[in-house]
Write a structure and sequence with these properties.
The chain is mostly beta strands. About 0% of the residues lie in helices and about 35% in strands. The chain is globular, with a radius of gyration of 14 Å. The termini are far apart.
């Protein structure tokens, strides 16, 4: 049951979350990339203009989630972000990356993240990585 709302939006190459109050569960069907929940250490580029609004960046360009074969590195500038609440209150986030052809000839990628109710990244993967 969704008890609040969450807005995920690009902000200076960062995914940023505003408040979220939903019950949760563990990601299913995706290989977890994070042995523990991941949240970036980067500062927020958005500034709340209303008291009580909390801006919490969750992932930014260059962040690496997980280790080894199950790691995921955020690349380029996130764009075209969409999300939905899945079973058990998780948030499934999809977005494409704008990539410069000099640094990445694929030109684009599409990511899928699974967030827990606190907004932590629980799983991350490229569903389109430019090799298709």
């Amino acid at each position: 049951m969704l008890r609040g709302s969450r807005i995920v939006a690009p902000g200076a190459s960062a995914l940023v979350a505003f408040s979220m109050l939903v019950p949760g569960g563990v990601a299913s069907g995706m290989r977890p990339a994070a042995p523990t929940p991941f949240v970036t250490d980067a500062r927020s580029f958005l500034v709340p203009l209303v008291d009580g609004v909390v801006v919490q960046p969750i992932l930014t360009t260059g962040d690496i989630v997980g280790e080894g074969d199950v790691s995921y590195q955020m690349s380029g500038a996130p764009d075209g972000i969409g999300w939905y609440a899945s079973a058990e209150g998780q948030i499934e986030v999809f977005f494409n990356h704008e990539l410069h052809p000099v640094w990445d000839p694929s030109g684009a990628r599409v990511s899928h993240l699974t967030l827990n109710p606190a907004g932590d990244v629980m799983a991350a993967e490229y569903v389109v990585d430019g090799t298709e």
